[in-house]
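RECORD TYPE: protein structure
NAME: Tripartite tricarboxylate transporter substrate binding protein
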Amino acid sequence: MIVTRRAMGLGGGLFAVALHGAARAQEAYPGTRPVTVVAPFAAGGSTDFVARLIAQELGARLGGSFVVDNRAGASGTVGAGTVARAKPDGFTLLMAPNSTFAMAPFLMSNLGYDAERAFAPISLLATNGMFVCVKSGFAAKTLPALVAQAKAAPGRISYGSGGVGVSNHLAVEIFAAATGIDLLHVPYRGGAPAMQALLAGEVQLSFVDTVTALPYLQSGELRALAVTTAQRAAQAPEVPTIAESGVPGYRASTDFALFAPAGTPEPILKALSDAAVAAMRSPQVRERLAPLAIDPVGGSRAEFAGYLAEESAKWGAIIKARNIRLD
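PREDICTED:
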């Protein structure tokens, strides 16, 4: 068999291409290709902050570029839908609060994606509690006193929220159901208008994110009757939990989690999870989150299934019982 120089050159070129392709295939994730982290709410809020924080940390730990893309709308389901339809290759991720992944599926009849099967969880990143806030001159000085006052005048005490179906609406609904009281819901278009309504006396009560409430608690304009988390807030340790105040087992918070599209290769999911857990458990991240009263979690993928089942059952039950809908 005669092999020409031309054939030898061609064969060598093909061999080089094959080697190059193999090297690229074995290149550590994410390599030089940027990863998009979709934050399904507008820039400037707590979801956006946590998304940018985890994007920065993942980039530093995995040696790549992670870029946040804000895609707001429909309780975060617009952005979530974008990720659900993305190629499952690890280059499009979702950083969403539980109002998107554990509440919206029960509030909306047509998400445009299967919430149970569309995503692969990576990590429960962080949690942010709420204070049960009233104006400083409000008659009830404790949560049991508020419950007694509400029972004496059903439907007379009003509470403000950032809108129908958001965390601080549903958290009050669970509290009202657990204590057997009837409160008047006044929804606003966002947390800021709801806070202004409370300060102006348009409503008597509101469950307010800890970071938003703290300055008003410190100034004395508002008083916290309780906190919604399982443990007391480090920033206001004198404020009891709702569970301590006569509602055993009560817990409600805004939780942030990281997801990839279902079908993303297991080695990529593991790399992302390991990096996310290490980041959220690091002292520097804890220090950055402390001023916002956001508590880092850094939960593993194995732990996420139990958490999601519990969250979905809790929020789904109250949404169905109270017939709360967004569409």
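COMMENT: The CA atoms of residues 15 and 96 lie 45 Å apart.
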